[in-house]
Amino acid sequence: MAEAYIVAASRTAGGRRDGKLKGWHPADLAGAVLKDLVKKTDIDPARIDDVIMGCVGQAGEQAVNIGRNAVLAAGLPESIPATSVDRQCGSSQQSIHFAAQAVMSGFMDCVIAAGVESMTRVPMGLPASLPAKNGFGVYMSPEMQKRYPDIQFSQFMGAEMMAKKYDISRDELDEFGYRSHQRAIAATQAGAFDDEILAVEVETENGKEMHKVDEGIRFDASLDGIKGVKLLAEGGRLTAATSSQICDGSAGVMIVNEKTLKELGLTPMARIHHMTVVGGDPIIMLEAPIPGTQKALQKAGMKIDDIDLYEVNEAFASVPLAWLKETGADPEKLNVNGGAIALGHPLGGSGAKLMTTLVHALKNQNKRYGLQTMCEGGGLANVTIIERL
User: Fold this and answer.
1) Among residues 70, 74, 143, 368, which is most buried (max CB within 10 A)?
2) Which Gene3D superfamilies match (predicted)?
3) Is 89 a catalytic residue?
C-alpha cells in the first residue's frame, strides 16, 4: 500500500483569550506556521500541491477560505491552492487525514495539513449566533428538529452526561485537571516543547517579546485550588478547571509520499499507519473517541497495549477519563506532556497541534507507535495511528 510520511511538524505556543496572541490576525498566524514548515524542510514551496486548513469559526477574520488567505499571508507562491475544513474540534486532524489520503493516492505528492483558531478575535459560536428571523438562519433544520425534538445540542451537557454514564467523580475530574498542569509544567521546564514550538513576536505591556511558552499553563496550580473552583452547573461535576481553555493558536504538518520523500532527500518523522473517522450519538456527543479507537485498532490489527503514547484531547476531563476506562489504556501513556486543560484548545487548530506534540513526544521518548483521537461536535471522532521513524 502507498505510504504517507510526516516530514515536519510545527505549532505556536497557545495564547489565552485576550492574551499574548490577540494582536495576530489568524491568517497571519497560520501563515507563520506554513512558512516554518517550508523552512524546516528546505523544500521549494512550489512543490506544495495543496494546503488543507482546519478552522471551526469560519466567520469574520477566519472567513472566505482561511486556508487560502494563510497561503497568501505567508508570501508563498500564488500557485499553491488551499481549502478550509470544518469537522468541528477535529478539523485539522481531518486535514491530516485528507492530506495523507491525497499523497497516498498518488495524485498529490506534498500537502500541508494545518489548523488555526483565534478564539479571541473570532469568538466561539460566532457562525451559529448570526441573527435569525422567522426560523431562517438556525443551524438545526426542521427535519433535524423532528428527529431530535426539544433537544439543544451542547458539548458541555454531553461532558456532564459522560461523567455520570461512566461514573467519574468530581474528585477524579479534579485530579485529572491538576495532572494536566503538572505534566505541562514538567514538559515545559524540561524543554520537551522546544523543537515543536514556533516562537512568534508579540506585543506586551513591557514591549515586544517572543511568545514561546503556552500561556494557559498555571505554574502555581494546586490540587486544593482546583478543588475549590465552583461547578459550572448545579448538581454537575465539571468546573472551568476541568475543562479545556479557550485558546488562540495554529499548527501544521507537512505530509509527503514515498516518491517525494526519496526525490527530495527528506527525513521522515513518522508514517501514517492508520486513519479512522466515526459518528455516534449527537446528544451525548463526546463519546465517539471510544468506539472510534476500538474500530481503528481492530482495522489496524493492533491492541491498545501496542500503542506507546496516546493523545486524547482534553475538551473536558470526563472525555479522556471515560476513554481510559473503556479502552483499558495505560494512564501513564496518556497526554504525557499535558493536554488542553493546561495548554489550551484552539478548536480547529487542535488536531494538528496534538499531532505535532505526539510526533515530537515519540521522538523524545524513543517510542514507536502513537494514537491520537478527539471528540467533535455532532458526535464525531477522528482516530490517527502513527509510527515514528
Assistant:
1) 70
2) 3.40.47.10
3) yes
